[in-house]
Write a structure and sequence with these properties.
- The complex is a heterotrimer of chains A (630), B (256) and C (260).
- Among the domains of chain A are: 137 residues, Succinate dehydrogenase/fumarate reductase flavoprotein, catalytic domain (Flavocytochrome C3, Chain A, domain 1), CATH 3.90.700.10; 105 residues, Methane Monooxygenase Hydroxylase, Chain G, domain 1 (Up-down Bundle).
- Helices cover 38% and strands 16% of the residues of chain A.
- Chain A is built from 18 helices and 22 strands.
- In chain A, the strands form 6 sheets. In chain A, strands 7-3-2-11-18 form a 5-stranded parallel sheet, with helices on both faces. In chain A, strands 1-10-9-8 form a 4-stranded mixed sheet. A 4-stranded antiparallel sheet of chain A has the order 17-12-21-22, with helices on one face.
- The longest helix of chain A has 25 residues.
- Chain A is globular, with a radius of gyration of 24 Å.
- Chain B is of the alpha+beta class and 256 residues long.
- Chain B folds into 2 domains: 101 residues, Ubiquitin-like (UB roll); 150 residues, Alpha-helical ferredoxin (Fumarate Reductase Iron-sulfur Protein, Chain B, domain 2, Orthogonal Bundle), CATH 1.10.1060.10.
- A 5-stranded mixed sheet of chain B has the order 2-1-5-3-4. Chain B has a two-stranded antiparallel sheet with strand order 6-7.
- In chain B, β3 and β4 form a beta hairpin.
- The N and C termini of chain B lie far apart (77 Å).
- The model of chain B has no long low-confidence stretch (mean pLDDT 94).
- Chain C is built from 8 helices and 4 strands.
- In chain C, α4 runs antiparallel to α5, α5 runs antiparallel to α8 and α6 runs antiparallel to α7.
- Chain C has one domain.
- In chain C, the strands form 2 sheets. A two-stranded antiparallel ribbon of chain C has the order 1-2.
- Chain C is globular and about 75 Å long.
- Chain C is mainly alpha-helical and 260 residues long.
- Chain C is 51% helix and 5% strand.
- The chains are: A alpha/beta (630), B alpha+beta (256), C mainly alpha (260).
- The interface between B and C is large, with 61 and 51 residues.
Chain lengths: 630, 256, 260
């Protein structure tokens, strides 16, 4: 083993961890504010999970409906999040989203257009007006590519001035950060990372670090997220001493593909049901009719005949229960599977093949037809799809200060995008994630650069580097002792645990059991053994990612156990109602020497002029008694 | 549901050398080549290096060559092979290998930097851009590109002639020049940048002999040759090889 | 392929399909046409059987052309021209097809093997593509396109003349008329589906929205252009069939079946 001093060090002003939408937007802003900025990402530059986003970017540009404005967008966002949103974030987000979208155009983005040449906007669930700027169904790709090309544009400017493309903005691709390092006084001093290709260690010293690592979906068995989503940023924040907020809120989409295995979790768009697709269990029954809750009884069809008539005549018929809100549908699917009436691969059947002629299916659902044909070799015009809930997005995340995105208690650490919590409250609206990335990515970059400009030179102590290095190499030591654990096995068990016990429907006993299992997995993870060398060794990479997934999973489970209500992305069978008394309560999750601890924190009261945007009656449904009194 | 044992030959090695290694591995219904590679990792070859990400054909990470053809591993279903067929998987052969199926694609990032970025028009602020759908359609097609670099890999100009890498940007980045040249608001010309001339003189458009392999391998079905490269060649002719255009310009310049 | 740093794989390719079939078939097809057309172009005989003139010999521009009543023959070249008059005119369609973006692909692949097929290594040590003379001349394609337009126009005129009988009376048609009709449709479709044409009618524009008519034209040409390869082959075959038909009539192999 080489001595610690051989770990290379580089000095930067701002280090951005993650090169998705938020990370790149932060890096662009930091560089423009004058900071020498390094971006670190696990994949190749331009491959981040942002490319998977389809729908669009929510921004009240009022191109499609002139009545739209930030206040309406703010209202929609707060309602969607069941008023748990960090309201100042929701306000800034609604106000700044249009500028962020227009800015993309000046960097070369090409959105779909309205007839008069402006950016076209489409309807989406929860948004009062057509609001989503989009490019077909590949909006995320357009957003990411535009930011990537803007980064390259800035590098070209730097090259003209300095002769070096990477003088002020450099992307370290295929690097993984394992630790945020701090100096003696507790301020951020840099990051410890390794190059995935070679296993080489590298320390980037910087007074400001922006976390933009995305979500946690890979802790669940069925997810629409990519392998990168292992909760890295959340775990890095925890280990650096910054708390996470409201981690219990995880969004599950009711219809993800469950079969074949290669595409498990990939989304099946809601329009399949909107266009006539029906859900059936293994007995062939359209089970959704058995799951219409009392509050919705009047709005949904009672017979299949009536439901079928709705597609042609929505005025005189009630809609079929397949079109209930996402959480209801997901709950029903879950219940059918648990009752043993699921499909062979643990989902239910979503069928359009018996509902429409093949030609109609191909015309109305071309992307779905294509997706199943290409990825699954399933002809949806001839057979039913198998679908089930899939883990899609985490609303909780690193607790941040609304305006600066600074984390709580760790000077120099910032977080933006899915890794940050608060903005979406308990449930995110479609389209609000891409705008979130842009608005808070920019703010993170700006404030990180400002902070770095006023901060002392970052110094990372030898001890901290040695400790991080030892931690990263630990999985290789396991193999010498024998009886080591296989990281793949542990990962599968964790995913199964989270999926079964802290999944879409939660129960007290199951969550307690999950915590026990996670504790056991954590013990076994200490004995992980990987073979081979550090060069592009996937087993080693997974072993290091597991630490993060275990930490974050425990936060999710603990917070979910603590919050004794159902709200947004947190559904408890034993506490089915939303409790107003929980509205002003945030759950902060910290990692200490004694393990994960939870703290209840009262939220800052919503500003009066923002409350005034809502009717009193509506507020009465959400706010706690004492808030209404005030 | 059925399961069978498939015969795989996977290139294992690094820049120092390597060879095709045989594996027998279980295959289940509905799987793609990437699933099989992952199964090998989890069961027989824990250090088998492979690059991947979204597994849905949207990120362009898992590019490789399967039975000699450049493809995305996540979009190649096992059902397209006969059960007794040997499936050979190698890294992309136009780029330096890092290890096993992972190649060093930095060539592409270098080329990306050589194409000057979009030049925003002077006098138009954010929110003031007006473009018609028919004017952005062409560039939008090219922006579907997921940068899997399969077109770069298959293009014989660099695949068979390493020495051309210096002079030739490759289909993906010539398409990027076309995209910007067709962008309705790109102000490169006003800024003194002639994208057409540079396409020929700096990015090596003349090397392309339009044999269409880039179009054949594109997983996004972008018609690279017909819609980007040939129109770009025609635009270069306008600029460089059309005496009528040249004459017209000269006369106009005289008058002005 | 075997440059340092790349994966050390000895095989020129690892394709398991019949990748050689397509270039082999292309080469065979093109060679057959070249052989046939060379024979016919130099033959200087059997190219007129009233009212049909072989497309290889139209317009007929030399003094030594056989007389064709109403036909497009002007003796621009005097009696000093002793070779086949086909050679005077064939150079234009030949140039048009030789520089055509589809045919370039076809012969680069099948004759030059650059490359023979995708991901199959080419045998050449060096490659400069179309950056130098003579292949730089491929950029002249659009001028051959311009030249191809009047040629196609004259062939259209020839087709109109086929609505006569062998005594030059109008209002008749035979099997030959049909052959000529099919040929001229294919010739026009191939000519108009040309990539240069697509560029000239609209492709060179930056703002389609400011030129709605040219945008419409560009869309139409684009639709044809998608079938440029098929049209290239179909028109190549039809022009040969057309000529063969005239040849057979002229040699008296059979009589033109008359419809009316």
């Amino acid at each position: 083993m080489s001595p610690v001093s051989s770990v290379e060090r580089q000095r930067w002003d701002v280090v951005v961890v993650g090169a998705g939408g938020a990370g790149l937007r932060a890096a662009i802003e930091a560089r423009r504010a004058g900071a020498r900025t390094a971006v670190i990402c696990k994949s190749l530059f331009g491959k981040a999970h942002t490319v998977m986003a389809e729908g669009g970017i929510a921004a009240s540009m009022a191109n499609a409906n002139e009545h739209d404005d930030w206040k309406t967008h703010f209202r929609d966002t707060m309602r969607g999040g069941k008023f748990l949103n960090q309201w100042r974030m929701a306000e800034l987000h609604a106000q700044e989203a249009p500028e962020r979208v227009w800015e993309l155009e000046t960097w070369g983005a090409l959105f779909d257009r309205t007839p008069d040449g402006r950016i076209s906007q489409r309807n989406f669930g929860g948004h009062e007006y057509p609001r989503l700027a989009h490019v077909g169904d590949r909006t995320g790709l357009e957003l990411l590519r535009t930011l990537q090309q803007k980064v390259v544009g800035l590098q070209q400017e730097d090259h003209r001035e300095t002769g070096d493309h990477e003088a002020r903005l450099k992307v370290f691709q295929e690097f993984t950060v394992t630790r945020v390092l701090k100096d003696g006084s507790g301020n951020v001093a840099g990051v410890f990372c390794y190059e995935r290709e070679s296993g080489r260690f590298l320390v980037l010293e910087a007074p400001a670090v922006v976390l933009a690592t995305g979500g946690i979906g890979k802790s669940f068995k069925v997810t629409s997220n990519s392998w990168e989503y292992t909760g890295d940023g959340q775990a890095l924040a925890l280990l650096a001493g910054a708390p996470l907020v409201n981690m219990e809120f995880v969004q599950f989409h009711p219809t993800g593909m469950v079969w074949p295995p290669s595409v498990k979790g990939i989304l099946v768009t809601e329009s399949v049901r909107g266009d006539g697709g029906v859900l059936r269990n293994s007995e062939g029954r359209r089970f959704m009719f058995d799951y219409v809750p009392d509050v919705f009884k009047e709005k949904y069809a009672e017979s299949e005949e009536e439901g079928d008539r709705w597609y042609e005549d929505p005025e005189n018929n009630r809609r079929p229960p397949e079109l209930l809100p996402r959480d209801e549908v997901a709950r029903a699917i879950n219940a059918e599977v648990k009752a043993g009436r699921g499909s062979p691969h643990g989902g239910v059947f979503l069928d359009v093949s018996t509902r429409m002629p093949a030609e109609t299916i191909k015309r109305r659902l071309p992307s779905m037809y294509h997706q199943f044909k290409e990825l699954a070799d399933v002809d949806i015009t001839a057979e039913a799809m198998e679908v089930g809930p899939t883990c899609h997005y985490v609303m909780g995340g690193v607790a941040v200060e609304s305006e600066t995105t600074a984390t709580v208690g760790v000077p120099g650490l910032f977080a933006a995008g899915e890794v940050a919590g608060g903005m979406h409250g308990s449930n995110r609206l479609g389209g609000n994630s891409l705008s979130d990335l842009l608005v808070f990515g920019r703010r993170a970059g700006l404030h990180a650069a400002r902070y770095a400009a006023g901060a002392a030179t970052a110094e990372v102590g030898e001890e901290a580097v040695a400790a991080a290095r030892a931690e990263a190499l630990a999985p290789f030591d396991g193999s010498s002792e024998g009886g080591g654990e296989n990281p793949y096995t542990l990962h599968q068990e964790l995913q199964q645990t989270m999926n079964d016990l802290v999944g879409i429907i939660r129960r007290e006993g199951e969550m307690a059991e999950a915590l026990e299992r996670i504790a056991a997995l954590r013990e076994r993870a200490r004995r992980i053994a990987v073979e081979g060398h550090r060069q592009f060794n996937p087993g080693w990479h997974l072993a290091l990612d597991l630490r993060n997934m275990l930490l974050v999973s425990e936060c999710v489970a603990r917070a979910a156990l603590e919050r004794t209500e159902s709200r947004g992305g947190h559904t408890r069978e034993d506490r089915p109602a939303m409790e107003r008394s929980w509205r002003p309560v945030n759950l902060l999750c910290r990692a200490g020497d004694g393990g994960i601890t939870l703290e209840r924190v009262r939220t800052e009261p919503i500003r009066a002029d923002l409350l005034a945007l809502f009717d009193k009656e509506e507020l009465a449904k959400y706010l706690a008694e004492e808030e209404l009194d005030a | 549901m059925s399961t069978y044992q498939a015969h795989f030959r996977i290139w294992r090695g690094d820049p120092g050398g390597g060879e095709l290694t045989d594996y027998t591995v279980e295959v289940h219904d509905g799987e793609v080549v990437l699933d099989i590679v992952h199964r090998l990792q989890a069961t027989q070859a824990p250090d088998l290096a492979v690059r991947w990400n979204c597994k849905a054909g949207k990120c362009g990470s898992c590019s490789a060559e399967i039975n000699g053809r450049p493809r995305l591993m996540c979009m190649t279903r096992m059902s397209v092979f006969a059960r007794d067929e040997v499936v050979t998987v190698t890294p992309m052969r136009a780029f330096p290998v890092v290890r096993d199926l992972v190649t060093d694609v930095s060539f592409n990032y270098v080329k990306a930097r050589e194409i000057p970025a979009f030049v925003p028009p002077a006098g138009l602020g954010p929110g003031e851009y007006r473009m018609r759908q028919e004017d952005v359609d062409r560039s939008q097609e090219f922006r579907k590109c997921i940068e899997c670099f399969l077109c770069q890999d298959t293009c014989h100009v660099v695949r068979d002639h390493e020495e051309n890498k210096e002079a030739f940007a490759g289909p993906r980045f010539l398409m990027r020049v076309a995209e910007l040249d067709m962008h309705p608001l790109d102000a490169a010309e006003e800024a003194g940048l002639d994208r057409r001339r540079t396409a020929q003189e700096e990015h090596g458009l003349g090397y392309c002999n339009i044999t269409k392999c880039c179009t054949e391998v594109c997983p996004e079905s972008i018609r690279i040759t017909d819609n980007a490269l040939i129109p770009l060649k025609e635009r270069v002719v306008d600029r460089k090889y059309d005496p009528l255009v040249w004459l017209g310009k000269t006369i106009r310049r005289r008058k002005a | 392929m075997r440059s340092p740093g790349r994966a050390s794989i000895a095989a020129r390719h690892l394709r398991t399909d019949r990748w050689w079939l397509s270039p082999a078939a292309t080469a065979a097809g093109l060679l057959a046409f070249v052989a046939y057309s060379t024979w016919r172009a130099f033959a200087n005989a059997h190219y007129y059987a009233a009212p049909y003139v072989s497309p290889f010999y139209s317009p007929c521009l030399a003094d030594n052309c056989v007389p064709m009543r109403g036909g497009p023959n002007w003796a621009l070249f005097g009696s000093w021209w002793g070779l086949s008059p086909a050679l005077l005119i064939l150079v234009f369609p030949l140039g048009f097809r030789l520089t055509c973006y589809y045919y370039r692909k076809a012969y680069y692949r099948s004759f030059w093997a650059a490359p023979p097929a995708c991901a199959v290594a080419e045998p050449h040590r060096a490659y400069t593509g179309e950056t130098r003379f003579p292949l730089l001349l491929q950029n002249l394609h659009r001028y051959f396109f311009y030249a191809a337009l009047p040629v196609a126009g004259i062939l259209t005129y020839d087709t109109a003349l086929t609505f006569r009988d062998s005594h030059y009376a109008w209002g008749h048609a035979g099997l030959g008329t049909l052959v000529f009709l099919v040929n001229i449709v294919l010739i026009w479709a191939y000519t108009l589906s040309c990539h240069s044409c697509r560029h000239i009618v609209g492709g060179r524009l930056r703002h389609f929205s400011k030129h709605p008519v040219r945008y419409r034209l560009w869309t139409w040409v684009g639709r044809l252009n998608r079938r440029h390869m098929q049209l290239a082959w179909a028109s190549l075959i039809s022009v040969a069939v057309c000529d063969l038909y005239v040849y057979l009539l002229a040699t008296g192999a059979f009589d033109d079946p008359r419809f009316f």
